[in-house]
């Protein structure tokens, strides 16, 4: 059980009350919970799964793999396997292990894991090669953790979509991320369930989806849910403004603020009505952002190494030990060439 609060006296009172009713042991300040490390520093709190990733690499015999800078290779186009499944049970275990890391602290692998999970029922060699690449990326970024500095205390979101990223069924991919206190608190990369006929439509579906959290019986509005959650936390004593959702499509922005939907697609009409209702009630506001500044971009498509790194930093992913990733990746390259540590240090000094 994790107990937290802003008043230490209240926390102590709660622990005393629970101890009087149940057999409990106070282990002090939390260090690890559910496989997630909590690290307190001068600049805020960092949550990391470096030890979990290390165990995962050992489990799948990849502890000595060479680190790599991106979770996916943009030149590889994944397609369903037409042949016999290749080690399907082990593939499912690998996906499950990666998914826990992705859901907890690693939004930078959300697109890769979401894409690979679609082939769990019949994986092929190409899918195994791609999943091993994700492990190699995690090896090089093992010390990454989500850092929350407390600034800013304003909830903001980013929405994006990639049109027809799945050639086999012509579906698109939605991505969204919400940030608070300098780090991501909620993110997703999902295959769209409807077929869109333009980039604007796919962006609009993603914009609508970033406000939805599905249940078995109903659909709630995620942005509104997060906003109501903040209302219940006694840290914000002022009126909370509307949640700013940043989108990189001017056409989608115009459609969202248009009072009349004149299209023929029923699925877009429903989403338009929902978004208009949220805007009118002051729950959300839609703001344009350039594509290179859209922090949801990496949740919808493959990106090169520089963009992967900048997106990770943007959502609050930072390396716990500065330079550790660079050193480990460099050392692996020189080790392959049979060069020693002296040469590595010389290379680092040069550039």
Give an account of the 3D structure.
The protein is of the alpha+beta class and 351 residues long. Helix content is 40%, strand content 19%. The strands form 3 sheets. A 5-stranded antiparallel β-sheet has the order 1-2-3-4-12. Strands 7-6-5-10-11 form a 5-stranded mixed β-sheet. Strands 8-9 form a two-stranded antiparallel sheet. β8 (212-214) and β9 form a beta hairpin. α3 packs antiparallel against α4 (110-116) and α6 packs across α8. Residues 1-72 form the Reverse transcriptase Ty1/copia-type domain. Pfam families: RVT_2.
What's this model, at a glance?
With 351 residues, the chain is of the alpha+beta class. It has helices spanning 8-21, 50-59, 88-104, 110-116, 125-140, 199-209, 222-232, 250-257, 266-280, 305-314, 324-336, 341-350, and strands at residues 32-33, 36-41, 44-48, 144-148, 156-166, 171-180, 183-191, 212-214, 219-221, 243-247, 284-288, 317-319.
Measured distance between first and last alpha carbons: 48 Å
- What would the average pLDDT be, to the nearest integer? 80
Query: Could you give the order of strands across the largest sheet?
Result: 1-2-3-4-12
Helix content: 40-55%
Outline type: globular
Give me the count of strands.
12
- Percent strand: 15-25%
Give me the secondary-structure category.
Answer: alpha+beta
Poorly predicted parts: 213-220, 323-351
Pfam family, one: RVT_2
InterPro entries: RVT_2
Domain Reverse transcriptase Ty1/copia-type: 1-72
Protein name: Reverse transcriptase Ty1/copia-type domain-containing protein
């Amino acid at each position: 059980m994790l107990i937290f609060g802003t008043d230490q006296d209240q926390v102590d009172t709660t622990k005393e009350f629970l101890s009087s009713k149940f057999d409990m042991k106070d282990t002090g300040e939390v260090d690890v919970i559910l496989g997630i490390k909590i690290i307190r520093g001068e600049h805020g709190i960092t949550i990391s799964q470096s030890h979990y990733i290390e165990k995962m690499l050992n489990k799948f015999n990849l502890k000595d793999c060479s680190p790599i800078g991106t979770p996916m290779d943009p030149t590889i186009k994944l397609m369903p396997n037409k042949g016999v499944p290749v080690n399907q049970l082990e593939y499912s275990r690998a996906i499950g292990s990666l998914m826990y890391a992705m859901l907890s602290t690693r939004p930078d692998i959300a697109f890769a894991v979401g894409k690979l999970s679609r082939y769990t029922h019949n994986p092929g060699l190409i899918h195994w090669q791609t999943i091993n690449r994700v492990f190699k990326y995690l090896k090089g970024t093992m010390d990454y953790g989500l850092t929350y500095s407390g600034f800013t205390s304003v909830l903001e979101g980013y929405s994006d979509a990639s049109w027809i990223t799945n050639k086999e069924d012509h579906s698109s991919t939605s991505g969204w991320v919400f940030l608070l206190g300098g780090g991501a608190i909620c993110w997703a990369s999902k295959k769209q369930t409807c077929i869109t006929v333009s980039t604007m439509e796919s962006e609009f579906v993603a914009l609508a989806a970033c406000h939805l959290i599905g249940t078995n019986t109903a659909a709630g509005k995620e942005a509104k849910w997060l906003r109501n959650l903040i209302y219940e936390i006694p840290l914000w004593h002022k009126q909370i403004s509307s949640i700013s959702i940043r989108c990189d499509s001017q056409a989608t922005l115009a459609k969202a603020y248009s009072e009349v939907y004149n299209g023929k697609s029923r699925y877009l009409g429903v989403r338009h009505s929902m978004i208009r209702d949220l805007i009118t009630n002051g729950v959300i506001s839609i703001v344009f952002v350039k594509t290179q500044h859209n922090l949801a971009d990496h949740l919808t498509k493959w990106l090169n190494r520089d963009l992967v790194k900048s997106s990770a930093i943007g959502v609050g992913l930072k390396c716990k030990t500065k330079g550790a990733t660079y050193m480990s990746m460099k050392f692996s390259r020189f080790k392959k060439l049979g060069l020693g540590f002296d040469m590595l240090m010389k290379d680092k000094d040069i550039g």
